[in-house]
Amino acid sequence: MEKYMFGKLKTATLLILAFIISGCSTLTLPPATVHQSTTVDVNSYKYLIGAGDVVNIFVWRNPEVSGTFVVRPDGMITTSLVEDIPVSGKTPTELARTIEEILATYLREPVVTVTVNNFVGPFSEQIRVIGEASEPKSINYIQQMTLLDVMIQVGGLTEFADGNDAILVRVENGEQKQYEIYIEDLIKNGEIGANIDVLPGDIIVIPETWF
User: Fold this and answer.
1) Are residues 87 and 108 part of one domain?
2) Within this chain, do residues 178 and 196 fall inside the same structural domain, yes or no?
3) Is 189 helix (H, G, I), strand (E, B) or coil?
4) SS3 annotation, 97-138
5) Any idea what the CATH number is for the domain that residue 91 is in?
6) Is the same domain home to 130 and 200?
7) What is the rounded CA–CA span in Å between residue 142 and residue 121?
8) Strand arrangement of the beta sheet that strand 126-131 belongs to
């Protein structure tokens, strides 16, 4: 009897949920905001600081305001003199000049040096591999990185991958463009001509093969 009543209660609950869901209007969210990398070719790359990075700030002759700081998710750091300093998206040199301008209010002719540990960088500077890679993930860009370097980091293709129908998505002049890439020719057939330069912000999509 208890089992019977539980079954009826479960059925009734599912019907109520279905009624509520059917009564909800379906809305379409806008597409993701396009963020273009500042790197437009392999020779123009400069590392940009991002959330999660650890920045070391050295202020010459002022150790009390020097220190090591973790960049918050909102792209800012908090120092002993200034609570919110925006740092995400700046090069270490640009950040040093910014901090010098801020500290000039408190110190006479401050000289600042910035170094970075635990490199993460902004999402716009990371390479993302999705689909039929052995280990799909985001990768921190390294200067002069190629498609082969990326595939080594993600462990190559799965047995179900259609590597020669893969797509590389890149933002150029504010628009997303798609390029055909031939990963299977590169890593399974050894065709080095299929290797290409990758840039910060590239997205590599590897589809599943159709048998």
Assistant:
1) yes
2) yes
3) coil
4) HHHHHHHCCCCCCCCEEEEEECCCCCHHHEEEEEECECCCEE
5) 3.30.1950.10
6) yes
7) 11
8) 137-140, 126-131, 203-206, 166-172, 175-181
- pLDDT exceeds 50 at position 46: yes
Tokens 């080095």 sit at which residue? 192
Q: Is 98 in the same domain as 161?
A: no
Place of tokens 């462990």: 155
- Domain residues for the domain of 100 are 54-117
Give me 208's structure tokens: 């599943």
d(CA 206, CA 183): 9
Instruction: Tell me what pLDDT residue 6 has.
Output: 45
For residue 20, pLDDT beyond 60: no
pLDDT single digits (tens) 82-93: 999 999 999 999
Domain count, the chain: 2
Distance CA 17, CA 40 (A): 50
| Tokens describing residue 128 | 């993302």
Residue bearing the bigger pLDDT, 16 or 133: 133
* Main-chain dihedrals φ then ψ at residue 176, nearest 5 degrees: -85, 130
